[in-house]
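Re: your question from the hallway

Yes, I did run it. Sequences:
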Amino acid sequence: MKFNQFGRLDPDFSEQVAELTQIHFLPNNWSEMAPADLLAGLFARCFPEVSNASEVADREDRVLVTRDMSLAQRLADRPEKLARGEFYAAALQLLGFIPADDFPDLDALTAMTKWGLPTIAADPLGGDDVVRAFYLLLTTRGKNGQNFLDLLTARGYFNGFLTASDAPHFVFFNGKSQAVFDTSKIVREVVYVESSLDTDHDGQRDLLQTTIFRPVETNAGLKVPVLYTANPYFRGTNDMAPSSYDVNQDLTPKVPNDTSYSDVAYHHAQPLVPDARAVTGTTAETSERPVDDGIYSLNDYFLARGFATVYAGGIGTRGSDGIRTTGGPEETASTIAIIEWLHGDRVAFTNRTDGVAIKAWWCTGNVAMTGKSYLGTLAVAAATTGVKGLKTVVSEAAISSWYDYYRENGLVIAPVDCQGEDTDVLALDTFSRRKDAADFARIKPQYDRMMADLKKGQDRASGNYNTFWDARNYRKNADQIKIDFISVHGLNDWNVKPRNVEQLWQKLRDLPINKKLFLHQGKHVYMNNIQSIDFTDMMNLWFCYELLGVANDAPAVLPNVTVQDNATPETWHRYADWSEPSIPKTQYFITGHDLQKQPPHQEEIVSFQDDGTPLFLAGDQDAHKWEALMMSRQSNVYEHTRQLFLTAPFAKDAYIDGTIVVTLQVAVNQAAGQISCMAIDYGTERRLKADPTVLQAKGQQLGYGWAVDDVKEFQLEKHPSEFHQIAKGHMNMQNRHTPWQNDALTPNQFVTLHFALQPTEHHILAGHQLGIMVYATDMGMTVRPNTAATYQLDLNASRVEVPYRR
Amino acid sequence: MKFNQFGRLDPDFSEQVAELTQIHFLPNNWSEMAPADLLAGLFARCFPEVSNASEVADREDRVLVTRDMSLAQRLADRPEKLARGEFYAAALQLLGFIPADDFPDLDALTAMTKWGLPTIAADPLGGDDVVRAFYLLLTTRGKNGQNFLDLLTARGYFNGFLTASDAPHFVFFNGKSQAVFDTSKIVREVVYVESSLDTDHDGQRDLLQTTIFRPVETNAGLKVPVLYTANPYFRGTNDMAPSSYDVNQDLTPKVPNDTSYSDVAYHHAQPLVPDARAVTGTTAETSERPVDDGIYSLNDYFLARGFATVYAGGIGTRGSDGIRTTGGPEETASTIAIIEWLHGDRVAFTNRTDGVAIKAWWCTGNVAMTGKSYLGTLAVAAATTGVKGLKTVVSEAAISSWYDYYRENGLVIAPVDCQGEDTDVLALDTFSRRKDAADFARIKPQYDRMMADLKKGQDRASGNYNTFWDARNYRKNADQIKIDFISVHGLNDWNVKPRNVEQLWQKLRDLPINKKLFLHQGKHVYMNNIQSIDFTDMMNLWFCYELLGVANDAPAVLPNVTVQDNATPETWHRYADWSEPSIPKTQYFITGHDLQKQPPHQEEIVSFQDDGTPLFLAGDQDAHKWEALMMSRQSNVYEHTRQLFLTAPFAKDAYIDGTIVVTLQVAVNQAAGQISCMAIDYGTERRLKADPTVLQAKGQQLGYGWAVDDVKEFQLEKHPSEFHQIAKGHMNMQNRHTPWQNDALTPNQFVTLHFALQPTEHHILAGHQLGIMVYATDMGMTVRPNTAATYQLDLNASRVEVPYRR
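Structure:
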């Protein structure tokens, strides 16, 4: 167990007192109280689930302060001070730690040092230090990863805090909004935002169904900001399987051309749209209730803390008009239309027919976007428009250019476990409007046209970057990002690959905005409920700063770049930057099977066969098993389909920081060729699992009688493994210059390929070896040729550049 | 997709009208309405999430009735009747089915026949038939497995149904209680029931913390029944690993004895207990709020429908007094103490110290118990006491005798994946009182005594049935069961093995009570959210009958025995009985490797080695992989450790109904021996997975803005498998007569073992073969001897008896 806490503030004592008083933890007259009464009174506040003194005493009698004395017994003596060890023994029990399991011999201080939990140095603790200690305790994280005030909140601390006589208001503690709002009465409603699109060409502007969950306190005049998640999956999905592509086919030679970027650049033209609907009246009351719930526990956490949450599926989803375009400019416009309404710049109606307009009268106009994957992608898209009202984005595992999702260097490259998927397949998946049969029947011709357009535009036959993909490259418009920006990504995410976040980061670096980056060791997963890091607290600090104007200095408090270590569990590094272009790279040459820093002595040409497809297809077609065999040092059925080169064992630990680049001199005995290259960490080690383990199902309560979340952690695998994939990359040999230009490929003539693997941050332990594997077909990502081919690699002209963190 | 629906009532028309009127689906003046208005009005009730006519029309305009006409367009013509096909095309869409995916060509009637959904025969539908059709529709199950009225409820149909002016009351439809209660205001409270136990010997009766969730309408005078779940895990668990036993050891020879049952029979003596606490006052208001949530979605479903839910951990759990005894009589008394309070027969206090008593004034006194595993076990225990107030039990995957959980025929036999566990290990697991360090410190000596008592009583060294186990055999008291009883069990549950439910069923069969049995194809899992069967609806019918006195004839409506077919998905058989003692058994003899109905011609002695442990321990120690190798027809490293006999391929389908019994003539070359025997279904087939697949995460809403559950189904495996384990059994060769008597075992002398495998219900498809495998060590369940042994089997004197359903 280790608790990394980056979002906690250390205000001065007077501020601590003010905050404690404001949340009624400290009585106003505390400084006049007898020290013993103060101490007893503060402990008594730690049991909000009970009502009277005898019940508190009963609770305190269950907490040990020394091996043979309970907190109740200790307090019965009316002490003015408490030994530091006694205080923290009690504190750890209040935080959910179990002495017998977690801190033997009641040695709280040793445990807290080990786990990284903060303490007050004074010993014994008395007077002001008691107040300081309780302030610190309230912001200290418990065994379930939540801080103590959140634990108290879940047990009812703030129940009824905003009494009827008060004007409802936000309550901040340690710079973060608290769950004082009545979650049993959340207002749930639906409106229809009128976009400036007519993507289904029905002569009317596309209406966008928008689902709102807002604190009931807004009805009493409180204005609140919004966490908005654009979620194409919100109203359901369709079965993609019928439209997936067969990838069991040879790679097609492409006709050489001299296409330049300007030939494929997308230039946006505002579409002509029908006139807006007539507004027949206005109202402040909606008339439709949502049928779906929120989908992200982080949003629910903030809903209890006064942030409204808003979900919209966008064009082509059930309840909305329009058709989907899988990341196209229309989807961006559809996404920001909701923000424009929230900000007061666009009309919404209470329903699809009556023309009665309704404003987001309960909203401050300040909006943050959240979400993972496609949801986070649309947040990136929105940020690049500079739309008013959008104040910040927390974008997780997001695509920043769709070419980097479905393509790479002139090849069709599937996201992991998604062979045969493409933009049209995903469009079918998210086109939930299809579920309303009569609605679908009316726009079926437009749907068919969209599918045809996507098929044509994505140009699966060539794999090249073209205007279609350029229109889906949000990074082109990165300079329009005027807002503070947070990116979160898994370093083992082979669905949305890390290039998406890294290339965006390269653009954000020099923008005059605050930007933060979180890189965890997971796959395509959330990180908000990981025990070892206070992500939720950091987001609370961030949203309060960005949306509510709380002067908590969040941009300075949060690390610029937070990276989870892959070798040591529960360890999160804070860095100033990641993958800087200027980082020096170590160059490796190849001799025999060795990667070494000295240039090779002699020329050497090696070869491998690309004939694994029949064997793969005859088996259980598990690309993960295939990949494990490919990476294995041991001889196996696929060994002849690769070339593997290894460094000597590392003398000391090293950290790869950014992008490994390879230069390969390759020939193939046919007119088309695909090269895959993988970087591998070899060394027998128990490694982190890329799927976090559930430590406690529903172990986090996000409010009082409100939503719950599991507590998770990235744990070590039970058994040591021999290797781990660090990164990989792919290139079509005809796209050795650019992804839009096709070069000629003559059988058996060597060409130079120079390409980057996916970026990473990877800790190589001393004694481990870095491996570089060169092969052709990637069963899980590329097409799988049935025709065998022979590839040759000229080692003398090949090299690998690795950026190491200083 | 197939929908088995056993809990639907078909009342006569006047009753249908009365019920529809009562829930305001049908206007009181319906018979005076123009037929077109009636039809339109009934459809309009199907969109409770919107408020006005234009919004309803918009919704209706999204539903197709013919290929080119929407429901809105159809109703705009003011039809008096609707073609049957049109009505059901619309109905299926309202039920969540998607034409393009689920019923191509809008052919609703063909689909409904295939899926088993009921329809009205009239065509066209008009007049009273329209009313009948809507009544039927409301009770018809949708794609997520819930009936249409539940779907409407989730969308707000009953929101505000009980207005402030009404006296709150239950609303029944089709014999089932509806979710008219306000789940946003559930009352959550804690009381402390005073038991008549002092298991921690502190001189005070054990107080039992009891958590209550009750409808807020009880505050307005409504009395409600209770679903009570005795849940030792409710307040948390401890890590069991440190106290688990090492099973890598030889089987110990036992000293022969002539113990008879009377020597080990347990005779209950009421313990002496301290006087009750003084009652210092009374109150109607509790003062403590619970910190944990409910744990069973079925309970939550009923909480929205007016049934309070109550959870108690029992003695030795956090917040309660006492120590745990893993199924001992003290736990039974602890369990029923809660019912006694709910029924008005026992005192509870608002807290642990002040002596203020509180009654369950909001309760009718009628209680049902629910729960799975240990939770269901305690329901069985409670039922065998005849405690007043307990009206019925729905016990899932329950232990009926703890010997059948941790032991078998004189052997220590672990539940699957629980090697090394025993009663003391489980007692540590559930002794959550340990988490309160000061509380634990005070009773540590009693805890140590309990652990010593359990270790001694369970007598792991012998594995024999003794007084300790007899005290934990609830079936002994089965004749005390005076209440209607439902058992649910998985036929692939190797945690709580099916003998537990089967042996209880043998006792229940002749009791003058209503009893029902559900056998699914799962492991140790719930079945309330399985798409293909209306378990929740049946339970609604049952609880309304048992707890609220609704005259819905539930005992006659529900099948006696409901069994899921293992070969055909989504198929549930209804039988009059299961595993009747009188069922004729087919006898198989053994010749060579064949099981055949003719007696063998000649004597044959075969042997196998029991030497697999070193190999197993050298590998990854995965008992499931080991078991798959053992069952495999193919030659493999464990083949010499088994003898496998197979029938000829079955000429036609057969159903094993109950218990396979084997008679084996065996010798072993040492003074102790353990025999395992397995029945296996051989045949290449895609089989049902024993873990249900999530069809739709959170796809069931259990009320309006209330709890959710996943929709699940037992699906076929992706690839065909060669075999499936039907049942197995184990016996210590020294316990060949009884589990309490040790017989001498002479090395290499043959003895006759006669024992039952676990009971089952299994469909063997034509062309498959039944296999019987005989072996010694069961890596996942028995001790794993390091000393190799040779077993001999005299085939001539061995046979297998199999009960087939007629």
